[in-house]
Write a structure and sequence with these properties.
By secondary structure, the protein is an alpha+beta fold. The protein contains five helices and 13 strands. Strands 3-6-7-9-10-11 form a six-stranded mixed β-sheet, with helices on both faces. Strands 1-2-8 form a three-stranded antiparallel β-sheet, with no helix packed on it. A hairpin with a 2-residue loop joins strand 10 and strand 11. The longest helix is centred in the first third of the chain and has 17 residues.
Amino acid sequence: MEQTKQIPKILIYEEFDGHPIYRKGYKDFVLGVKTIEEINMGTSTLQSFIIGCITKFLNKNLPDNYFVTSSELGLHLATNVNFSADVVIFREGVLQVGFHSNRYSDVPPNVVIEVDIKADESDYFRDEEEYFHKKTERLLQWGVERVIWVFSNSRRILVADDPQKWSFVSWDLPVPVIDGYEINVWDLMLKNGFQADK
């Protein structure tokens, strides 16, 4: 427990029912193998590329009555429950922003899209699968209409509309995003210069 208190807050990625979920690589800091500066705070090139492809397509193809952001928006679901989101979509009028908006959003986005897992879930969850299942469930319970996970290692996509309706598909198939609009992640990657042979 004492060891946990010494972990800097900057290494906390999310908070789940009061339990800190740290960034991948934080254990190297705890062991003294790496400094904070050496821990990867950002996304990998591949993660960033996929997020960029999705965001670029959505901004170009969704009408103006949608707002898309991809800056790891902080989501405040409840006391001691704070998540990050890679890409979010709000319908017009859902997100109210002013000069007071300097905290995590306490308004559920209509859609959350996550690309890979940037958290080390091992202190609180059995494995990554339990982590993304629980996170998805909590987002849907909070009011998010659809949660989409893109997993680059398995090249699969999870689409969850409610706790009882989840589906995994290959990432070269179109998946629904919002109001009849779809994305084909693999197609978007190729169109934006992904080199599949490397």
